[in-house]
Design a protein that fits this description.
heterodimer; A: alpha+beta; T-fold; disordered N terminus; B: alpha+beta; 4-stranded antiparallel sheet; 5 helices; 19% strand; elongated
Chain lengths: 264, 188
């Protein structure tokens, strides 16, 4: 990033970005390995792993495992074990959200769609970030299309400062949150091809514009952001009942609400 | 060890909960701590921070500070966006006149805090915080994660003291105009 104008001199940040899974995947590293060959190797491992995830889970590829599973050409037992892991997470989110989140939900034409993409993104980014976490004395932040995992090397590392995008204007922020070890995910209606609906009704949320969730893991943050968004008018109330979360709900009428979840 | 941060609106929740507790205990709105001690309309109230008026005997500032650690748990389990109604319920036993009350600015360890409430039928119907600390205190735990702090900012890579952006439009076309894009370009 550019030279900070603040009083505290931030350590230099090394960045890279690749288009994977139809979204920009961005990395920022600070500390001992920022920009060295170790960092580049770790980033290459992240990219390679996410490209492999895309081959398995992309609903845009007819030959992906998930497409073949959806058409009944494969059984779950014939899929890579990650498929069962992702589906189990989807079932957990479906229970937790009272059915608003589901990997099988009504499509625009009323037929059932099988689409675990709502689980895959956060799960894949969280998993791929381990390559960065292996870099000693290095802070990392890995973002997949605006959902991100942060890690700091130690107590002396500065926070990562995360901006929360305005749902109507990507050049503006509605909030900021300092992060050390944890994840931030935001759900709204702007995802390419991922128009979130309440799986119980097929209805697109009307009252909520975006939900941001801060949690320990990106799996949790991403699933809860999507679930809360699908719950529409209940978004903030539902999120406040979740353990170990904070969040921010932007309503269509312009109100912005911060939410503190239950303490574990 | 994870560094944990309490943000301004968490402070708001804590103070609102403290307020609710003390009014419930005393049953008198005019005996509330400093943050809500000066009505704009309605009966006169004691000077902010007048320790002998505070039900538990400490100064208002001490109350706010000492209450912070465990009040954090209360805030978490009650959920921040329910705090207003909780406080309203707690204050329901009071005999406050209807109207709006804006507290004096209270000095807390996090910085100045001011709370305004609206009372109707003896219940708090609205809580607002005209002033709260703008800093980034790190010494109080309320949850495992910081509460996002609200901002109104137009940003570009030159002015943004942020590292990454979380958002739903950070994909495909949206990305081209997004702040994340600018950050990425600036760093490459």
């Amino acid at each position: 990033m550019s030279t900070p104008t603040g009083a505290t001199a931030a350590p230099p940040t090394w960045r890279a970005v690749e288009q994977i899974m139809g979204m920009p995947v961005s990395v920022a590293l600070r500390g001992r390995h920022a920009g060295d060959t170790g960092a580049r190797d770790a980033w290459a491992a992240v990219v390679a792993e996410l490209r492999e995830v895309d081959r398995v889970f992309s609903t845009y590829r007819d030959d992906s495992v998930v497409s073949r599973l959806g058409r009944g050409e494969l059984t779950l037992a014939e899929c890579p074990p990650e498929m069962a892991e992702v589906l189990a997470l989807g079932e957990r989110a479906e229970r937790d959200s009272g059915g608003a989140f589901a990997v099988r939900r009504p499509g625009a034409d009323g037929s059932e769609r099988f689409d675990p993409s709502g689980v895959v993104k956060g799960w894949a980014i969280e998993r791929a970030a381990r390559h960065l976490h292996a870099l000693a004395d290095t802070d990392s932040c890995l973002s997949g299309g605006g959902d991100l995992v942060c890690r700091v090397a130690g107590p002396d590392s500065p926070d990562w400062s995360i901006g929360i995008e305005h749902p109507d204007d990507p050049t503006r922020l509605v909030g900021r949150v300092p992060m050390r070890d944890g994840a931030v995910a935001t759900s709204g209606l702007a995802h390419r091809g991922a128009h979130i609906v309440d799986a119980r009704t097929g209805r697109t949320p009307q009252l909520v514009a975006a939900v941001t969730v801060v949690a320990r893991s990106l799996v949790d943050a991403d699933l809860d952001a999507t679930s809360a968004f699908a719950l529409d008018e209940d978004a903030a109330r539902w999120l406040a009942g979740r353990t170990d979360r904070t969040g921010l709900v932007v309503w269509r009428d312009g109100r912005v609400e911060t939410v503190v979840g239950r303490v574990a | 060890m994870r560094r944990i941060v309490l943000w301004s609106l968490s402070t708001l929740t804590v103070l609102v909960l403290l307020f609710g507790y003390h009014t419930s205990t005393s049953g008198r709105l005019d005996a509330a701590p400093a943050a809500v001690a000066a009505p704009v309309t309605g009966a006169a109230a004691p000077e902010p921070g007048a320790s002998d008026e505070t039900p538990s005997g400490g100064t208002a500032d001490d109350e706010a500070a000492a209450g912070s650690a465990d009040a954090g748990n209360d805030a978490g389990s009650d959920a921040g966006n329910d705090a207003g109604s909780d406080a309203g319920t707690a204050a329901g036993s009071g005999d406050a006149a209807d109207g709006s009350y804006t507290g004096d600015v209270a000095s807390t360890r996090w910085g100045p805090v001011q709370v305004a409430i609206t009372v109707a039928d003896g219940r708090i119907t609205e809580v607002a915080v005209p002033q709260y600390p703008a800093g980034n205190p790190r010494d109080v735990e309320i949850n495992n994660y910081a509460l996002p702090v609200l901002v109104q900012e137009t940003l570009d890579a030159q002015s943004a003291s942020i590292d990454m952006v979380s958002g739903a439009t950070v994909t495909s076309e949206g990305y081209l105009t997004s702040l994340q894009s600018a950050l990425d370009q600036a760093g490459l």
